[in-house]
Task: inverse folding
C-alpha cells in the first residue's frame, strides 16, 4: 500500500505525515499526527466531534481526504490555548459547566471559535445554528450556548 | 485508492481518461461516506478543487458563472448573488451544517443526483445551465436534464461538470426555496420546493417557474401550477390551487424520511408558501 | 423550595471540575484514544440477517490474507449455563445470554449480531479478511415487535425460553416473564369513577445516542492475564462480565477506565471486550476494537419498543379511584427488557387504592436492549401521564391540581410495594405551578403541557480511598467512572469533610486493581453511594489526623477537634496544627495518613420530576417547535448545582428527541434503515430553547449531605409533557411515538374528515 507525503501547518507548526490511500484527515490527525483531541463520533459528517478549522473554514475532518490538506493550514482543539493561557471559550466552558462527558467538547470549541472569529457578537439563535452541526447528547445545549455567548462577551471586552 | 489533485481541466481529463472507474469529487461530503459504507470503491479519486476555473464565481455580461466546485459557504456569503438569487442562495445555505457548508458544492449537489438535493430545484427555476467538460471540449446541458434518476446523471465516463451558468433575472423577478425537514438543521429534505416569479407592473404574475424535489426520481417542474399562475393576481384561492397541482404532480415514495402521503401533502404546502415568498420578493424588487 | 439547611462551604457551590482542563484542551483520553506498540486493529463480522441458523463458518481464506493475525468465532468461547446470573446494578444479567450476545453460536438473533472477529496489522487487511470469511446462513422467519412476537404461531427465538411466573413449558413462547402488581378492588374502583379514560400507546426503540462509540484495547500476556483499557460505566462490571464470557477468573483481568464519552445506561454491559481479549491472546499482541456509528446503532443499546394500555378512573373532584395498565416491552434478542421498572414506575407518583398492572418481557429479533436512563419508566409515564391529562381536561381541573390531589408523600404506599419515606413530589408540582412560565400567555397554534415522573434511584456497592499527600493535599480515589462531573462532587464532599480547599483535593477514578469493588455509574447512584464511601473515608482520615495531633500534643484524642482543616485543642491549650503540618510530620506520628471505606448503600432517596412544556405546531406541515421548557426536580441536595442542572437539562433534551423524532426504522428484511445520526435524529442545538431548571431540595435523611441522585428521572416526563402540549395546541391526542411531522399531519387530516 502506497502512502502520500503531506506537508501542512497544524496549530501554527509545520507538520509532515504520510497518509494511506483513502485515509481521511480525521484518521490521519489521530493516527499519524497523534492529535487525539480530534474525536470520531460518526465518520459521516453528522456529529461534528472531529471539527477542525481548515484555512479559516470550519470542516468535519472525517469528510476530508488527508492529502487534500497539502500546503494548507489547520487548527484543532489542541491549538486553541496560547501557552498556559486558555482560550476564552475554554475558560467559559469550564466555568459554565458546558461539558458533561466531554467527548463533543473539542468539536464544539472549534466550531464556536470559528463562529466568534467571524461574528464576535452573535445572538443566541446564531449560536444555536452555528453549532447545529455538533451533537451533544449530555447537556441539552443550554450551558454550551450560554458559555459561547459569555465567551463572546469576554472577547469583546478585551478587544 | 489513489488521490490526485490536478490544477488544470486538461490534467483532470487526462487522469479520468487513464482509468474509467476514476471518481471526481469536490466536497466529498457524499463520496467519503459512500466509500466507508462500501457502496463505492474508486481506484482513483480526482479532487477538482485545485482547478481555478472550478472554484471561482463571477458575473460575465448578464450571466453568473459559478464554478462547479464553489462551496455552499462561498455561494451563500456572496452578497451580489443574494441580490439576484435570494432563493438559490438560501438553498445553498440550507445544505447541512457550517462544517458541511464549507465543503459541499453546487456541482456536487447536482451530480450526486439525489432527488432531494436542495440547490437543484432553485437552479432549475432559474434556468441554470451546466457546462460539462468532454473529451472534445465542452457541452452545455440544462440543469433539469443533468440528473436522470437517483444517483445517475447524463454525464458520460470521463466527463465532469465545469461550471454553472445562470442569467441574471429580469425586472420584478425573484426566486425562493423552501424545504421541509423534521429537525431545524442537519436533515436531508423530506420535500423541497423552489419558485421563481416575474410580476407584471400591475402585480399580476407574468410568468413563473416552480420545481419540486424529493417527490419523484428527479426534480420536477409543476407546469400546471405555472399555467394557473399566469396572468393572475396571487390570492389564497390561487395558492390552494397550485398547492393541489404540486401535490398531484409528484409520485413520492414512503421511506425512512417520510411517507408518500406526507410528502404529497407537504409539497403542496411548501409550493404555495414558496410561490408567495417569491412573489413578495418580486413585488419588493419593483 | 428551601427548608432550613446547614451552611456548607463547598457543598452547593460551583467549582470548576478537576478533569475539566484535560477535556477542553483535547488531552483527555477516551476509549479510542490509546495506542500501544505493536497494536493490531480489529473488526467484527456481523449477521446481515435478523434471524438465521449458522450452518457453517469457514475462516480459512481469511487467515491467508497478509497482515491477519487472529480470528475468533463463537466456538472459541466456553459454553455457559443459564443458572449463572448476577445483579449487575442495572438489572439481572444472565451470563449465558450475555455470552451469546457477545458472539453468536448456533444462530444469529438480530441484524448486527457478532459472528466472528478479526485482528490484523491494518484496518484494510481486517476488512478484507471480514469479506473473506465464508458464513452460510439458513434464514428463519423473524419478529421485530411485541405484536409480532406475542402473536400465535410466531417464530420462536429460543427453544429453551419459558414464561417466568406463568409457564414452565419450553420453546413455545417469546414471552420471557410476566410482572404483576395488584391491589384493592379494580371493578369497585372504576364503578366509583365519574370519568374513565382508556388509551393505547406505542413507542419505538430509541438509542442512548452517546457520541463516543464503544472502544477497547486489550493486551493479553503469555501468563493468561489481560489488561483491558476501555470506556464504560463500570470497569469492575467489565472485569466480571468479560471474565465470565471467557471462562476466566476476574483476577486474571485488569480493567483500566478510559474517560467515557457518554453512556446513559448503554455502557453498563460489554460487547467488544471478550473479543479483544481473545484476539489478543491468540495473536500475542495488543488488539484494539472500535465500533463504527453504524455498529453502535445496529448492535448496542437501544431501549425497548413498547405497547402500553392504560385505563384510569377518577371522581369529579379528581381523585383517582382505579387504574389499570398493561405493558409489553421488547427485550431484543435476549430476555431482560425494563418492563419490570416500567410496571413499578407507571402509577407510582399517585396514591391509588385499586389497581392492576401487568407487564410482559418479550424477546424479538432486534439488538438486545440495554439500560437507558430510568430504564422502562419514560414510555410508561408517556402513557399514564397522557391519560391523566385527558382526565384533567374532561373534569375541567388544572392538570397540576389534579396531580396534587393524588400525589404521594411520606407514608404513602407505592403500587409496587414499599412505603415512601420523605419525598419531594408535591414540592416539584408546586415549583412548576409557581413558576412564571406557567402564567406566560400562549399564541395561536401554541399549547402547554405538564407531566411528572418517578424514578427509584440506586444504591449498591462503592469503595473509596482517601490519601493525604505530604503537602497536606488529598487524593480521593474511587471506582466510579465520571460521566458528567462526579469527580467534582466527590471533591466537594471531601473538601467539606476535611475542611480544605476543593482544589487541594485530587479526585481520581482508579483501575480495578487500585481501588475496592465499585458498581456501575448508573441508577443515579454515584453522588449518593460513592459519595457516602468518600465521606466515610474522609471521616476516618479526620480521625487519623486528630489522633496524630493528639500524639504531637501528648493529649487524649478526645481533646482534639477538627475545624477548617486543622486540629484544635478543645481548651486552646495548644496552637492548632494544620493538615499540612500533620502531613509533613506524618512519618514521626505513625506513617502516611490514609483510609478507605466501602459501602453497600441503603436508604436511597427517590426522585420526582415535574416538567412544563410549551410548543407551537405548524398545522400544515406537522412541525413542532419547543418554545419554552421548565423542569423542576427534587435533588435532595445539589452538591454541584451546575451539574445537577446539566443532568436535568440533558434528560429533558433526550426526552424531547424521543418525543418528536427518534426511532429505530426497519426495512422489510428486518434490517435497520437509519443507523446514523443523519436519519436517527437526535436534537440539535437549534431544535431546543434554553431549558429552565428549578432544583427542589428535600434532603434525603439517609445521606450525609441529603443527596438523592439526579441523573435519570429527568427523562421520564418529557414525552407526555410534549404530547400534552401538542394536544393543547391542536386538540389532537397523539398516542404513538415519535410524534413526527408525518404522524401529526395524519392526525390533523383525520380531524378534517
Result:
Amino acid at each position: 500500500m502506497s502512502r502520500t507525503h503531506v506537508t501542512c501547518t497544524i496549530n501554527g507548526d509545520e507538520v509532515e505525515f504520510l497518509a494511506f490511500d483513502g485515509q481521511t484527515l480525521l484518521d490521519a490527525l489521530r493516527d499519524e499526527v497523534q492529535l487525539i483531541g480530534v474525536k470520531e463520533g460518526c465518520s459521516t459528517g453528522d456529529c461534528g466531534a472531529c471539527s477542525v478549522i481548515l484555512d479559516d473554514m470550519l470542516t468535519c475532518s472525517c469528510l476530508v481526504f488527508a492529502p487534500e490538506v497539502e500546503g494548507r493550514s489547520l487548527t484543532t482543539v489542541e491549538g486553541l490555548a496560547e501557552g498556559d493561557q486558555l482560550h476564552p471559550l475554554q475558560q467559559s466552558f469550564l466555568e459554565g459547566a458546558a461539558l458533561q462527558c466531554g467527548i463533543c467538547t473539542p468539536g464544539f470549541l472549534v466550531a464556536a471559535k470559528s463562529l466568534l472569529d467571524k461574528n464576535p457578537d452573535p445572538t443566541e439563535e446564531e449560536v444555536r445554528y452555528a453549532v447545529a452541526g455538533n451533537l451533544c447528547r449530555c447537556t441539552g445545549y443550554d450551558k454550551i450556548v450560554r458559555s459561547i455567548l459569555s465567551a463572546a462577551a469576554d472577547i469583546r471586552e478585551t478587544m | 485508492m489513489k488521490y490526485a489533485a490536478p490544477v488544470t481541466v486538461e490534467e483532470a481529463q487526462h487522469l479520468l481518461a487513464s482509468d474509467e472507474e476514476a471518481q471526481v469529487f469536490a466536497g466529498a461530503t457524499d463520496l467519503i461516506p459512500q466509500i466507508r459504507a462500501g457502496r463505492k470503491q474508486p481506484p482513483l479519486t480526482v479532487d477538482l478543487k485545485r482547478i481555478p476555473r472550478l472554484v471561482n464565481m463571477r458575473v460575465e455580461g448578464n450571466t453568473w458563472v459559478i464554478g462547479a466546485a464553489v462551496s455552499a459557504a462561498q455561494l451563500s456569503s456572496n452578497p451580489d448573488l443574494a441580490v439576484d438569487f435570494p432563493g438559490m442562495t438560501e438553498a445553498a445555505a440550507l445544505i447541512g451544517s457550517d462544517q458541511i457548508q464549507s465543503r459541499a458544492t453546487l456541482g456536487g449537489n447536482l451530480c450526486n443526483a439525489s432527488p432531494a438535493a436542495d440547490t437543484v430545484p432553485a437552479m432549475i427555476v432559474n434556468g441554470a445551465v451546466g457546462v460539462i467538460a468532454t473529451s472534445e471540449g465542452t457541452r452545455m446541458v440544462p440543469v433539469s436534464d443533468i440528473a436522470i434518476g437517483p444517483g445517475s446523471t447524463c454525464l458520460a465516463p470521463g466527463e465532469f461538470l465545469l461550471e454553472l451558468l445562470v442569467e441574471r433575472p429580469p425586472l420584478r423577478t425573484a426566486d425562493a426555496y423552501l424545504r421541509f425537514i423534521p429537525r431545524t438543521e442537519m436533515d436531508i429534505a423530506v420535500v423541497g420546493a423552489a419558485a421563481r416569479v416575474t410580476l407584471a407592473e400591475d402585480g399580476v404574475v407574468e410568468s413563473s417557474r416552480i420545481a419540486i424535489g424529493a417527490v419523484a426520481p428527479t426534480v420536477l417542474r409543476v407546469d400546471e401550477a405555472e399555467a394557473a399562475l399566469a396572468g393572475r393576481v396571487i390570492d389564497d384561492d390561487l395558492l390552494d390551487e397550485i398547492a393541489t397541482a404540486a401535490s398531484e404532480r409528484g409520485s413520492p415514495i414512503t421511506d425512512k424520511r417520510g411517507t408518500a402521503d406526507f410528502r404529497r401533502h407537504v409539497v403542496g404546502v411548501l409550493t404555495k408558501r414558496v410561490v408567495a415568498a417569491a412573489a413578495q420578493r418580486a413585488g419588493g424588487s419593483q | 423550595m428551601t427548608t432550613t439547611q446547614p451552611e456548607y462551604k463547598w457543598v452547593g457551590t460551583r467549582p470548576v471540575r478537576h478533569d475539566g482542563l484535560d477535556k477542553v484542551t483535547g488531552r483527555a483520553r477516551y476509549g479510542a484514544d490509546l495506542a500501544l506498540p505493536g497494536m493490531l486493529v480489529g473488526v467484527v463480522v456481523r449477521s446481515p440477517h435478523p434471524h438465521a441458523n449458522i450452518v457453517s463458518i469457514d475462516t480459512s481464506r481469511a487467515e491467508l490474507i497478509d497482515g491477519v493475525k487472529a480470528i475468533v468465532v463463537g466456538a472459541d468461547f466456553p459454553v455457559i449455563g443459564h443458572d449463572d446470573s448476577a445483579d449487575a446494578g442495572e438489572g439481572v444479567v444472565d451470563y449465558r445470554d450475555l455470552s451469546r450476545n457477545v458472539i453468536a453460536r448456533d444462530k444469529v438473533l438480530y441484524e448486527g449480531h457478532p459472528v466472528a472477529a478479526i485482528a490484523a496489522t491494518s484496518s484494510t487487511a481486517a476488512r478484507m479478511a471480514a469479506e473473506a470469511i465464508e458464513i452460510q446462513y439458513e434464514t428463519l422467519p423473524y419478529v421485530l415487535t411485541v405484536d409480532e412476537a406475542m402473536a400465535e404461531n410466531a417464530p420462536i427465538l429460543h427453544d429453551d425460553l419459558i414464561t417466568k411466573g406463568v409457564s414452565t413449558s419450553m420453546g413455545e413462547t417469546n414471552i420471557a416473564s410476566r410482572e404483576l402488581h395488584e391491589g384493592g378492588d379494580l371493578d369497585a374502583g372504576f364503578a366509583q369513577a365519574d370519568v374513565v379514560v382508556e388509551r393505547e400507546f406505542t413507542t419505538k426503540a430509541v438509542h442512548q445516542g452517546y457520541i463516543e462509540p464503544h472502544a477497547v484495547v486489550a493486551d493479553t500476556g503469555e501468563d493468561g492475564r489481560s489488561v483491558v483499557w476501555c470506556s464504560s460505566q463500570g470497569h469492575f462490571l467489565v472485569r466480571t462480565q468479560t471474565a465470565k464470557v471467557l471462562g476466566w477468573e476476574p483476577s486474571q483481568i485488569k480493567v483500566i477506565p478510559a474517560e467515557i464519552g457518554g453512556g446513559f445506561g448503554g455502557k453498563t454491559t460489554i460487547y467488544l471486550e471478550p473479543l479483544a481479549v481473545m484476539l489478543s491472546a491468540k495473536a500475542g499482541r495488543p488488539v484494539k476494537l472500535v465500533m463504527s456509528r453504524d455498529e453502535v446503532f445496529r448492535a448496542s443499546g437501544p431501549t425497548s419498543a413498547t405497547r402500553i394500555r392504560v385505563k384510569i378512573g377518577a371522581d369529579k373532584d379528581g381523585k383517582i379511584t382505579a387504574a389499570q395498565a398493561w405493558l409489553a416491552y421488547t427485550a431484543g434478542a435476549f430476555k431482560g427488557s425494563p418492563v419490570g421498572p416500567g410496571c413499578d414506575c407507571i402509577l407510582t407518583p399517585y396514591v391509588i387504592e385499586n389497581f392492576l398492572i401487568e407487564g410482559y418481557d418479550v424477546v424479538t429479533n432486534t439488538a438486545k436492549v440495554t439500560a437507558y436512563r430510568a430504564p422502562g419508566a419514560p414510555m410508561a409515564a408517556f402513557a399514564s401521564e397522557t391519560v391523566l391529562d385527558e382526565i384533567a381536561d374532561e373534569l375541567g381541573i388544572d392538570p397540576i391540581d389534579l396531580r396534587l390531589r393524588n400525589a404521594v408523600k411520606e407514608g404513602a404506599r407505592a403500587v409496587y410495594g414499599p412505603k415512601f419515606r420523605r419525598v419531594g413530589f408535591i414540592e416539584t408540582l408546586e415549583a412548576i405551578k409557581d413558576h412564571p412560565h406557567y402564567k406566560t400567555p400562549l399564541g395561536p397554534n401554541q399549547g402547554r403541557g405538564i407531566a411528572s415522573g418517578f424514578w427509584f434511584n440506586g444504591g449498591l456497592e462503592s469503595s473509596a480511598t482517601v490519601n493525604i499527600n505530604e503537602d497536606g493535599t488529598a487524593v480521593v480515589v474511587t471506582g466510579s467512572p465520571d460521566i458528567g462531573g462526579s469527580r467534582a462532587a466527590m471533591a466537594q464532599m471531601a473538601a467539606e469533610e476535611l475542611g480544605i480547599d476543593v482544589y487541594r483535593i485530587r479526585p481520581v477514578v482508579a483501575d480495578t486493581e487500585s481501588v475496592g469493588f465499585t458498581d456501575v455509574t448508573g441508577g443515579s447512584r454515584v453522588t449518593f453511594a460513592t459519595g457516602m464511601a468518600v465521606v466515610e473515608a474522609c471521616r476516618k482520615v479526620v480521625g487519623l489526623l486528630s489522633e496524630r495531633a493528639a500524639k504531637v500534643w501528648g493529649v487524649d484524642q478526645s481533646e482534639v477537634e477538627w475545624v477548617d482543616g486543622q486540629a484544635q485543642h478543645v481548651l486552646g491549650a495548644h496552637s492548632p496544627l494544620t493538615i499540612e503540618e500533620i502531613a509533613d510530620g506524618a512519618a514521626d506520628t505513625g506513617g502516611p495518613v490514609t483510609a478507605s471505606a466501602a459501602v453497600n448503600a441503603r436508604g436511597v432517596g427517590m426522585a420526582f420530576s415535574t416538567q412544563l412544556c410549551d410548543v407551537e405546531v405548524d398545522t400544515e406541515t406537522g412541525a413542532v417547535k419547543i418554545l419554552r421548557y421548565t423542569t423542576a426536580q427534587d435533588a435532595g441536595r445539589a452538591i454541584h448545582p451546575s451539574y445537577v442542572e446539566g443532568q436535568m437539562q440533558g434528560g429533558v433534551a433526550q426526552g424531547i428527541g424521543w418525543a418528536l423524532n427518534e426511532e429505530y426504522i426497519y426495512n422489510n428484511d428486518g434490517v435497520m434503515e437509519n443507523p446514523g445520526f443523519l436519519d436517527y435524529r437526535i436534537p440539535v442545538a437549534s431544535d431546543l430553547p434554553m431549558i429552565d431548571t428549578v432544583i427542589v431540595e428535600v434532603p434525603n435523611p439517609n445521606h450525609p449531605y441529603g443527596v438523592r441522585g439526579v441523573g435519570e428521572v429527568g427523562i421520564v416526563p418529557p414525552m407526555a409533557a410534549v404530547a400534552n402540549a401538542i394536544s393543547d395546541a391542536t386538540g389532537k391526542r397523539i398516542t404513538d411515538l415519535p410524534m413526527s411531522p408525518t404522524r401529526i399531519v395524519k392526525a390533523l387530516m383525520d380531524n378534517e374528515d
